């Protein structure tokens, strides 16, 4: 399908046929999801691909027994992992350093590597560090003072950073949904679920947060609830 066809084909499906999905194809769609853009390339996400029938039954209950969950053939749980920021920052710094050595003129390499070390070795750990909200308050005070003299990003509280991580994960979700549509597989993103139960079922660490749960299958005709409705384009489009 063309991209236009993929986007128009994708619908949130509430009821699936009892037809199995190719697990490897779904896995490949998740591999494509890792290519989604994300903030500072930190990739603070994990994907839990559920194919075990018993775990799926438990998760369906945690998803309030929605038919999109109870009839799903597979489930994918997208999880944010802010707590992995040091590990991810180190990995991205190593990648950036290799890229600079490979692609930058020799005379510019030292400064560019120094800049990356400052960003991923100091700025990222400072931005993502948490301590009962106190560090976030300190960062807010600091950027508001600096903002008197120069342009700066103000979204630095612990909750601001949480939003950024969830936005990045949502971009991976959307990439996954489109990749699945390209396989003629159907999906439905769910936000109605008991997050504590989901974390307990999947044995997620305390710092992990459930971003979205995606049901997967092949649509029944009744699985799509009517025509698609969207707000008129003129109400949301602003050309400046």
Question: Could you walk me through the main structural features you see in this protein, from its secondary elements to its overall organization?
Answer:
- The chain is built from ten helices and four strands.
- It has two domains: 3-83 and 175-226, NADH Oxidase; 85-159, no CATH class.
- 52% of the residues lie in helices and 11% in strands.
- By secondary structure, the chain is α+β, with helices and mostly antiparallel strands.
CATH class of the largest domain: Alpha Beta
Chain-averaged pLDDT: 96
**Could you tell me the number of beta strands?**
4
The low-confidence runs, each spanning 5 or more residues with pLDDT under 50, are: none
Q: What kind of sheet is the major sheet?
A: 4 strands, antiparallel
Question: Beta-strand level of the residues, as a percent range?
Answer: 5-15%
The main sheet orders its strands as 1-2-4-3
* CATH topology category name of the largest domain: NADH Oxidase
The separation of the N and C termini measures: 33 Å
How much helix is in the residues? 40-55%
The tally of structural domains comes to 2
CATH-defined architecture of the largest domain: 3-Layer(aba) Sandwich
Structural class: alpha+beta
Shape: globular
CATH H-level homologous superfamily name of the largest domain? NADH Oxidase
């Amino acid at each position: 399908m063309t991209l236009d066809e993929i986007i128009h084909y994708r619908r949130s499906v509430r009821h699936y046929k009892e037809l199995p999905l190719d697990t490897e194809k779904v896995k490949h769609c998740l591999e494509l999801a890792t290519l989604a853009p994300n903030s500072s390339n930190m990739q603070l996400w994990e994907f839990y691909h559920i194919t075990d029938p018993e775990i799926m039954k438990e998760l369906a209950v945690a998803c309030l027994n929605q038919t999109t969950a109870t009839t799903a053939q597979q489930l994918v749980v997208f999880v944010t992992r802010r707590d992995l920021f040091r590990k991810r920052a180190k990995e991205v710094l190593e990648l950036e350093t290799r890229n600079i050595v490979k692609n930058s003129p020799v005379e510019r390499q030292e400064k560019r590597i120094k800049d990356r070390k400052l960003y991923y070795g100091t700025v990222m750990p400072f931005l993502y560090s948490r301590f009962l909200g106190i560090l976030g308050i300190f960062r807010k005070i600091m950027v508001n003072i600096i903002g008197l003299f120069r342009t700066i990003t103000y979204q630095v509280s612990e909750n601001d950073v949480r939003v950024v991580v969830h936005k990045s994960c949502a971009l991976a979700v959307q990439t996954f949904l489109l990749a699945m549509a390209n396989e003629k597989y159907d999906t439905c993103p769910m936000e109605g679920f008991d997050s504590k139960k989901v974390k307990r079922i999947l044995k997620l660490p305390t710092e992990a947060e459930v971003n979205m749960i995606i049901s997967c299958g092949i649509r029944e005709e009744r699985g799509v609830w009517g025509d698609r409705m969207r707000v008129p384009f003129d109400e949301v489009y602003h050309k400046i």
